[in-house]
Amino acid sequence: MNEPRTTSSQWKKAKPALLQIEGEQITVTNPDKPLWPEDGITKLQYMEKLAFLSPFLIKHCRNRYLTTIRFPHGIGDKSFYQKNCPVPKPDFVQVAESNGISYVRLDSLPTLLWLGNLACLEFHASFDLIGDTEYAPEWVLDLDPTLKEEPRIMEAAGIVGKLLQSLGIQSVPKTSGATGLQIIVPLAEPRPFEELRQLGQFIGDFLSRAHPALFTVERLTKNRGDLIYVDYLQHFAGKTIAAPYTPRARIGAPVSTPLTWDEVHSGRYRPRDFNLLNITERLQSYGDLMDSVPPQKLDSVLQFVASHQ
């Protein structure tokens, strides 16, 4: 993207733009508003990126309870979490009810662009599927750095990947879009969340013993020092994860991006290297790396863990 950068002080309101998408009309208010001012990304440019990302982002949010984070005036200003569907809503926007909350069902490009116009800059999908809070369709380990800048995060992810591989488990590493990485294991059959948390605890305990200068399972940040937290407890019905391909509201416009294990092991990359400015070329080259691993069977590993509780 070579457009000149627009700062908040330079921005002037432009007339709304009208988009015709899949038979629906989307109004883009303030299309020139800078949402990532430091990176020169305006609202209209953001929505163009969302349109490209839509087949991938929608795939990983469909049938999940969606939480968005809205930044009405861009990433340098106030923000808020939104679980309930914004009102008024167009007729094409569908909702899913759960515990008194009407969540947006992100199931179409018009819905995604409507949210984009509302300056929803982050999309967080529930671990549980709509209508099923008992079973998880994937197993997730979240590597959460204590340090604001953690140069060892790729090394840590590589160690986890090799450990899982030694157990016969294939996985996909994914940047959170912030400072951490998540290790995703698609499941051949859904498993109870509690069962997967027990497996996560087993892995986290092993890592913290085998690499005490790198990993911890200590929940309190103040007690972690500079260690990377192996978070298995957040893998829970009702909790959320930064969806694959969601942008993040940080300088550099990072995007939560699946990686290859070769990229992780190379040591050449940092999570912020993957962003709205280069995600188009990456997806054209790699496709959706979330599909690079077949669904995994965990029966033997789970039985081993259960026998050692």
From TrEMBL:
The record ties this protein, via Pfam families, to: LigD_Prim-Pol
Family matches, as InterPro entries: LigD_pol_dom, NHEJ_LigD
What region holds the DNA ligase D polymerase domain? 42-289
Q: What is this protein called?
A: DNA polymerase domain-containing protein
**Organism per entry:** Paenibacillus radicis (ex Gao et al. 2016)
